[in-house]
Specification:
Number of strands: 3
Oligomer: single chain
Number of helices: 3
Distance between the termini: 23 Å
Bound molecules: zinc ion
Strand order of the largest sheet: 1-2-3
């Protein structure tokens, strides 16, 4: 198949290999950057590797008893909070 463009890849929610179309993918850890994040992905079918680009698009206000605020209440570091968020994002990928 023809290699997917960025738009085509996003259209498919990043759930397929942009090179061979396989859905058997493995995601690495998420690296948080200033305005987004990147995550290495590899295809179990064709062996290619690439980086997913996640963009910071905004924020929403959460109530104080929300999970995300309880992270801060528990006194964990910013880095740990990011790691937890990264784990959530990986779960979303894994269960899609
Ligand atoms: Zn592939």
């Amino acid at each position: 198949m023809e290699q997917l463009t960025d738009d085509q890849y996003v259209e498919k929610n990043g759930a397929v290999c942009p090179f061979c179309g396989s859905e058997i993918l493995e995601w690495g850890s998420i690296e948080i950057e200033q305005r987004g994040a990147t995550q290495e992905v590899s295809c179990m079918a064709c062996g290619k590797c690439w980086m997913d680009r996640h963009e910071l698009t905004g924020y929403w206000v959460v109530e104080k008893d929300d999970d995300y605020c309880s992270l801060r209440a528990d006194g964990i570091s910013h880095e740990d909070a990011l790691a937890v968020l990264a784990g959530d994002m990986q779960k979303k990928h894994a269960y899609r």
